[in-house]
Design a protein that fits this description.
The complex is a heterodimer. Chain A is an all-alpha fold. In chain A, about 80% of the residues lie in helices and about 0% in strands. Chain A contains seven helices and no strands. Chain A has helices at about 5-35, 35-80, 90-95, 100-115, 125-155, 160-195, 210-215. The radius of gyration of chain A is 23 Å and the shape is elongated. The two termini of chain A are about 25 Å apart. The chains are: A mainly alpha, B alpha/beta. Chain B: InterPro entries: Ribosomal_Su5_D2-typ_SF, Ribsml_uS5_D2-typ_fold_subgr. Chain B: Keywords: Membrane, Transmembrane, Transmembrane helix. Chain B: This is Lon proteolytic domain-containing protein.
């Protein structure tokens, strides 16, 4: 069985890598700005501007991709584990509805982790997802709060606030990237475990039961 | 007939999708960074003459002016100054602006010099005392040093009023009861000269709660195209429904007379 989310997982992983890299460049530019404004204007302003504009568009593309991905991941989870407790539609609601997503977002990965733990091949990814769900909500709140503070402060934003906000953005994007990688690996491992590697052919009449046992053994 | 099968390298679909998706932010970045020039003006602040080291209560008004080289700079300027107004320009604006800044510094130094002499004359006519030449140069240098963040000569009138307040120990704000702001150059003959950006200066003064705004009374002697400062100020005040009172003044004496009548 081919996973419905496989190709999208690969695309999202690459896009998230690009977003992490661009947020790292923005962070470096912020450090230059904090150290010396003139140096920033001479050498980093244009680069920061280009990366800023690209990141904004990239971010919107990634949100759209992410929602499609989480939907398809849940389609796969429901196929692999028929008793999986969350439908693809409900997963979208959990990720999209404001305020409710404070519970919905971490619970999506917590439930995913809990279910993958029951499959021996995906146990490691299951534990990782459960652990990451806690960091996800903490850093999501921290980075949202810091970004809002930077926005409200405008040109008066302090150096510490700018650096903290930049660092929190790198962390939150890295958490999403790690989640994406872990979900992809977990699903792949769970799917391999669920699908028999090679179907055992019906034994021909002339094969003795003893020989068959030998092959199986 | 035998056919030699050459293995064809297949590009993974993920790579094609990612490349197409990345084209979008790259294209937007290219559009935002193509050279496209604009000049802008935005409301600034009213600044107490005390910031220049003068013990007065009045405020001069500055506005923000500049140019942007592309859509990104225009967008980020708009983020920083939401009231900024932009006018399309061409590449020559970069040089024009640099020249204007240089000239603005000369004009500023000139108006500071005139403000000191006008205030000295004004105070001297009351008290019959004259400042020694050494003290004058020292004061001039100190004021120029304090005003390096600003260019242009529109702070002259308010600086002269502040210097008179300082010398006569007067307080036209009635202990902070009134917020008095204004704009206009001060010329060697004590007349108040015309300046630019009247609209934005009035918006700035209104934003900062000014009660009175002094402008050059230049209707009869405005040599440039368009409306004189006096006419423009009156129109803008009416159009924007400003609560501050626009006070046209012809000379430093004129301004001082008004302020003293206000505080009998």
């Amino acid at each position: 069985m081919k996973l419905k989310s496989e190709m999208l997982s690969n695309v999202l992983t690459i896009m998230l890598w690009v977003l992490v890299a661009s947020s790292a460049i923005t962070f470096l530019c912020t450090i230059v700005y904090v150290i010396d404004v003139d140096l920033y204007i001479d050498y980093a302003y244009s680069l920061d501007g280009i990366v800023d504009i690209m990141s904004r568009v990239l971010y919107i593309s990634i949100i759209v991709l992410y929602l499609i991905w989480i939907y398809r991941v849940h389609m796969d989870l429901n196929t692999i584990m028929p008793n999986y407790p969350r439908s693809p539609g409900m997963a979208l609601v959990c990720n999209m509805v404001p305020l409710f997503n404070f519970y919905g977002l971490p619970s999506t990965y917590s439930k995913m982790g809990k279910s993958l733990i029951t499959i021996s091949a995906a146990r490691k990814q299951g534990y990782n997802l459960q652990g990451l769900a806690i960091y996800l909500i903490i850093f999501l709140l921290v980075s949202n709060g810091l970004n809002r503070a930077v926005l409200n402060a405008g040109t008066e934003a302090s150096s510490t606030l700018l650096i903290l906000s930049g660092a929190a953005n790198i962390v939150i994007y890295s958490i999403y990237l790690t989640l994406c990688i872990q979900v992809t690996r977990g699903l792949r491992n769970a799917q391999i475990k669920e699908t028999p590697a090679t179907p055992i052919p019906d034994k021909p009449d002339w094969v003795s039961s003893g020989f068959t046992n030998e092959i199986k053994g | 007939m035998s056919e030699l099968a050459t293995p064809r390298k297949r590009i993974r679909p993920e790579i094609i999708i990612v490349s197409l998706l990345l084209l979008l932010p790259i294209s937007v970045a290219v559009v935002f960074f193509l050279p496209r020039y604009y000049v802008f003006t935005a409301p600034g602040e009213i600044v107490s003459v005390q910031e220049l080291g003068v013990d007065g209560s009045v405020n001069f008004t500055y506005v923000r002016e500049g140019f942007t080289k592309n859509l990104y700079e225009r967008w980020s300027t708009k983020q920083a100054f939401p009231d900024a107004e932009f006018v399309s320009a061409d590449a020559s604006v970069e040089k024009d602006f640099s020249d204007m800044q240089d000239m603005g510094e000369d004009y500023r130094d000139e108006t500071i010099r005139n403000a000191i002499t006008s205030a000295d004359d004004e105070v001297g006519s009351d008290t019959d005392t004259e400042e020694p030449a050494g003290e004058f140069e020292q004061r001039l240098e100190a004021l120029i040093e304090e005003s390096t963040d600003y260019y242009g000569d529109s702070l002259g009138l308010m600086l002269a009023i502040g210097l008179v307040e300082e010398a006569n120990q007067e307080d036209f704000s009635a202990n902070g009861h009134y917020v008095i702001a204004g704009t206009g150059t001060i010329e060697a003959d004590h007349t108040v000269g015309s300046v630019g950006s009247i609209r934005d200066k009035l918006r700035t003064a209104e934003q900062f709660g000014a009660d009175y705004f002094l402008v050059p009374k230049d209707k009869e002697r405005f040599y440039y195209e368009g409306l004189s400062n006096e006419e423009e100020a009156s129109l803008v005040a009416e159009e924007l429904g400003l609560t501050l009172q626009v006070v046209p003044v012809d000379t430093l004496d004129d301004a001082l007379d008004f302020l003293r009548t206000m505080n009998p």
